Please model this.
Amino acid sequence: MKSSPSDEAHTQGKYLADMLESAVAIQQYMQDVSFEGFWDDSLKRDAVTYRINIIGEAAKHITRATEKALPEIPFEMIRGMRNRIAHEYDHIDYRKVWGVTQDHIGPLIAALKRHFLAHPPPPLVETEIERVRAHQKKAIQEALESNSDPLPGSNKGKSHERGH
Model:
């Protein structure tokens, strides 16, 4: 079954949003971090390479039409970086990874933000688990706000005398 143009736009929007989310995370991780600080922090290196991998994986799903609409984003380079990290994991050049965080993440964020300002993404579809949680939360809130006995059948608030 072929998706409709609006479905494709929604899907493309999701991939672009995933890219933006990961780029913003990288920017936050790397704020005021020198190469030495990056190199000495294995958790930060892992987090950044993971997020670059997400950006690249999302970029793999971007259509040619979306690429043409966003010529300032180097999708091919992004996919290439992801492939090097994923397939040559034992030869990652962390100086290049750090350079990407310093030179390319900011412009990627700016381009994606411009895109979303011009083309707001459709509202996200609520998942079934989110609906169940919302229903449970509402039921709990209503129970807390009501003046009724919180445990039906309990004797709370009733006085009982023994033997009568």
In short: Residues 5-118 form one domain. The mean pLDDT is 84. The first helix runs from residue 5 to 29.
